[in-house]
Specification:
Strand order of the largest sheet: 1-2
Largest sheet: 2 strands, antiparallel
Order of helices and strands: HEEHHHHHHHHHHHH
Number of strands: 2
Distance between the termini: 21 Å
Radius of gyration: 23 Å
Number of helices: 13
Oligomer: single chain
Length: 293
């Protein structure tokens, strides 16, 4: 029989939910409402007065070539971060799940990067690739491979992608490892007796059973790539060279706090919020159909 919790008083559930609702209202709904309001207003240079301008801020955004280019940059960056992070984390989880001796040490070492702050991750990878004294930069130059993320846009993109993926791998690894450990060994043993190869066992049994975990991590990683990578970009490349690594969330900050275009920045934040909501809805509407619960 289904068990349900019954509260003796009608106000107790609301009291229990109140702290979480207060956090959501103060740190999400209120800033979102402020962004919506400022996106349709235009302030003077000193912020003393505001004038309603409607969709003018949005029209100016989509007439700006640099803003349109940031869409392409964000799409490429997000795809690389999300799919690379999931693929590498799944590979590490599969390998760690097979380790018997010293498994705790391997798992602990793989979890450590998640404790590193994003800005520290950005600085760490920047120092390793700093030319000519960075460890990895020096190694590449010794092989005759020139590296200069300050002038080469492809190198700069690779730098922030590697830093962002490294930062998120631990989070993905934990969920994939938990998912692998929840799969009944009897299914794997039955497939082995039937003569299925390890590759076939993975794609026909293991990966389909991991689809709920993979779908959850896909949503989380897309949101992470759009929002939580700001500190990495700011610390490693500052959106450069030029604006080649200026993803949407970094451009919101740059235009608002450095270019002092508060209303244009608010309009950008509204567009960014709409994009993330749309992507999340699309994932739940279409990708979730492939998930086997």
């Amino acid at each position: 029989m289904e068990k349900r919790v019954r509260f003796k008083s009608s106000w107790l559930p609301w009291v229990l939910v109140a702290p979480q609702m207060a956090v959501v209202l103060v740190f999400f709904f209120w800033p979102a409402a402020q962004a919506l309001y400022q996106s349709v207003m235009q302030q003077d240079a000193f912020g003393g007065s505001s004038v309603y301008v409607g969709w003018e801020n949005f029209d100016n955004l989509f007439k700006d070539p640099s803003y349109l280019d940031s869409f392409k940059t964000t799409a490429l960056f997000s795809a690389l971060v999300a799919f690379s992070g999931l693929a590498i984390a799944l590979l590490l989880a599969v390998m760690a799940n097979r380790v018997i001796r010293g498994a705790g040490i391997y798992k602990t070492l793989l979890v450590w990067p998640y404790a590193v702050a994003p800005v520290v991750a950005g600085v760490l990878w920047l120092m390793m690739f700093a030319s000519p004294y960075g460890v990895i930069s020096y190694f590449l130059q010794s092989l005759g491979i020139p590296w200069d993320h300050l002038l080469n846009a492809n190198h700069a993109m690779a730098l922030i992608v590697m830093a962002a993926v490294w930062k998120q791998i631990s989070y993905n690894f934990l969920f994939f490892l938990a998912g692998l450990q929840s799969i009944p060994h009897s299914l794997i043993e039955a497939a082995t007796i039937d003569g299925a190869s390890p590759w076939r066992r993975f794609w026909t049994i293991v990966f389909p059973l991991l689809s709920p975990t993979t779908f959850f991590l896909l949503v989380i990683n897309v949101i992470y790539a759009f929002f939580d990578t700001f500190a990495i970009v700011d610390a490693a490349t500052h959106g450069g060279p030029g604006k080649e690594t200026a993803i949407l969330v970094y451009k919101v900050y740059y235009d608002g706090f450095k270019a002092l275009d508060i209303n244009g920045s608010a309009a950008q934040s509204v567009v960014l919020m709409g994009i993330v909501i749309a992507l999340t809805v699309i994932q739940f509407r279409f990708v979730e159909k492939k998930v086997q619960y």
